[in-house]
Design goal:
Blueprint lengths: L3 E2 L1 E3 L2 E4 L7 E2 L4 E3 L2 E2 L8 E10 L2 E9 L2 E2 L12 E3 L11 E3 L8 E9 L2 E9 L2 E2 L2 H28 L6 H34 L1
Parallel strand pairs: 4-14
Antiparallel strand pairs: 1-13, 2-3, 3-6, 5-11, 7-8, 7-12, 8-9, 10-11, 12-13
Helix pairs in contact: 1-2
Length: 200
């Protein structure tokens, strides 16, 4: 959820968005930051996005001397943060943050220096939801438990059946009981490993 605030310093107005959004892990999000359109691009001395980290700030992205300085970004945000380049001449310095992670939660500040003035807008990323892959892992884990329980019930029922073919069926069910839940859990573990790999 994003909550933004506006701050006015003399004639320099920096605004964000008052709308709340939700994001899933690994989703791309946009943090809004617009500067009053009366300021021309050449008068932007510096625009920075920073994330508050306890008593310190982590630089997310920096625009200085009419250039985006991606190399100045903190290691956590390198190659994941960008401006909408075509929108900069319009005073739009919204930040696109790619593939959000759990540790991305927190307060972000867009700070603008222009014509000797400064102003800022803040946005807070409060909550991250589960991605499709997380939900898939959950479904697979439930399926593994359900299949194990179902096969147990079938084995129990067959073992009390006096039909000659019951023994053969019990062996088949026993084999499935040992194999099927383990295969499902293996797939779930593989997907979970992929998720952890991509968000780390």
């Amino acid at each position: 959820m994003l909550v933004s605030k506006n701050h006015i310093t003399e004639r320099l107005l920096v605004s964000g968005s008052d709308e709340s959004i939700s994001a899933s892990i690994r989703e791309d999000i946009t943090l809004n930051c617009s500067v009053d359109s009366h300021i021309t691009p050449e008068h932007f001395e510096e625009v920075s996005w920073k994330k508050t980290d306890e008593d310190d700030y982590i630089l997310v992205l920096l625009y200085q001397n009419n250039k985006t300085l991606s190399d100045s970004s903190g290691e956590r945000y390198r190659d994941r943060a960008e401006f909408f380049t075509g929108e900069i001449p319009k005073g739009n310095f919204s930040l696109r943050l790619k593939s959000v992670r759990t540790e991305d939660k927190g307060v972000y500040m867009c700070q603008v220096f222009a014509g000797g003035l400064s102003a800022n807008a803040t946005a807070e990323l409060k909550r991250l939801g589960f991605s499709v892959l997380h939900i898939m892992v959950l479904i697979l884990c439930i399926s593994a438990s359900g299949s194990a329980l179902l096969l147990c019930c079938l084995i129990y029922c067959r073992s009390h059946n006096n039909v000659p073919t019951a023994t053969k069926h019990i062996r088949t069910l026993g084999f499935l009981h040992a194999l099927l839940p383990n295969i499902i859990m293996f797939v779930a573990s593989f997907i979970w490993g992929f998720i952890e790999d991509t968000v780390s």
